[in-house]
Design brief:
By secondary structure, the protein is mainly α. It contains 15 helices and four strands. Helix 3 packs parallel to helix 14. It is globular. Keywords: Disulfide bond, Endonuclease, Glycoprotein, Hydrolase, Metal-binding, Nuclease.
């Protein structure tokens, strides 16, 4: 029988560890996919579905052919790159994955709006489980470790797909008020917290619910801005400047610092946001920041994956290489590994319990 502690040992520490490969179990994908496509679980989902799925889909447009094949190899048949990008949030909310919660952010002990800065030694509490920078370093190494079984390298890919999105969300790089979670605000008359409106409420107010069509439309728009629109120059000159996977800590720190700068420049520029209505002018000013940050994350994710697989970022041209239009990159792996089957069963059970609590409430 598969021992869940093997996964715990493999993923808890920032250092690279190996463990015995789990038994491969064949089963119908209909058992896996409902869990992968669940709409929500308790707790905050960084960037929400809109952000994470758009980041992953945009990245797929810039994957070199060899990288696309690699990604497909480590996704299940019927599992899209968009589905894989939201897995880490669901995993963090089950007992088996609870240790990974701190991997979704880094708590910058700075002083916004006066001082915004991320200091790895000060802010990444490795002794307490690590942070998003140490997690990206770890998963970047693990996905390249050919001695690890398929299931562990596949999970490393899912973590990377997610964390590159998270690290571009400004409030995932800030300690103040628990990254804005304790700042209670109003959004179009409804109670919310600052973190939640940056994760999803602002973008959904403009774009609607995160349907596949809506996500593809946003991805197409961001791609156009990168390839010849307002992001073109900056993407070519700045966004691809740190994609060295052998210096993962350094590059992740650069990305986190860029996101953290927005905390002083806009997110917490007004120190007194408590109780304020932010659905008007504040949200209007946040939309360009959110969309640009999502575009940055998707572009950099593509370059990161290309570097991992091919050894070059593949972003020298202005045109995309992979899927475009309405196509979505999906996996090729048949069957489901036992570790993933157990995880998905826990996720489904957690969702059922959450729904039960909502009904009772």
């Amino acid at each position: 029988m598969f021992d869940r502690r093997d996964v715990d040992r493999a993923y808890r520490a920032p250092s690279i560890q190996s463990c015995s490969p789990p038994t491969t179990v064949k089963m119908q994908l209909t058992t896996l996919l409902p869990a992968l496509l669940l709409s929500s679980l308790p707790g905050t989902q960084a960037w929400g579905f809109y952000g994470h799925k758009t980041v992953a889909l945009l990245a797929s447009r810039y994957l070199l052919p060899e990288t696309s094949v690699f990604v497909q190899t480590y996704l299940y048949r019927g599992q899209s790159i968009m589905d894989a990008a939201v897995w880490a949030d669901r995993y963090a909310h089950i007992p088996l994955g609870r240790y990974s919660k701190t991997w979704h952010y880094i708590d910058a002990r700075d002083d916004p709006p006066r001082v915004c800065e991320v200091n790895y030694d000060r802010d990444c509490a490795v002794a307490g489980g690590g942070c998003i920078i140490s997690a990206l370093v770890n998963m970047t190494a693990r996905i390249q470790d050919e001695s690890l079984p398929w299931a562990q390298r596949a999970q490393a890919l899912r973590f990377i797909l997610h964390f590159v999105g998270d690290i571009h969300q400004p409030l995932h790089t800030e300690h103040k008020s628990l990254g804005g979670n304790r700042i209670k605000v109003l959004f179009h008359g409804h109670e919310a917290n600052l973190h939640s409106i940056w994760d999803s409420k602002i973008i959904e107010a403009v774009r609607g619910r995160p349907t596949e069509r809506g996500i593809i439309n946003l991805t197409n728009e961001l791609q156009d801005r990168i390839e010849g629109g307002e992001y073109a120059t900056e993407a070519k000159e700045n966004w691809k400047s740190c994609l060295n996977t052998t210096a993962a800590e350094e590059c992740a720190l650069v990305w986190a610092s860029g996101a953290n700068k927005w905390v002083c420049d806009y997110v917490l520029k007004d120190e007194d946001l408590e109780g304020k209505e932010l659905g008007g002018e504040y949200a209007e000013g946040a939309v360009p920041i959110i969309e640009k940050s999502i575009a940055q994350a998707g572009y950099r994710l593509a370059g990161w994956l290309n570097m991992l697989v091919v050894g070059k970022d593949g972003l020298d041209g202005t045109e995309s290489f992979g899927n475009g239009g309405w196509e979505v990159l999906e996996g090729a792996r048949e069957g489901v590994e036992e570790v993933d089957r157990e995880i998905e069963e826990m996720i489904e059970e957690g969702a059922r319990r959450f729904e039960g609590l909502r009904v009772q409430g």
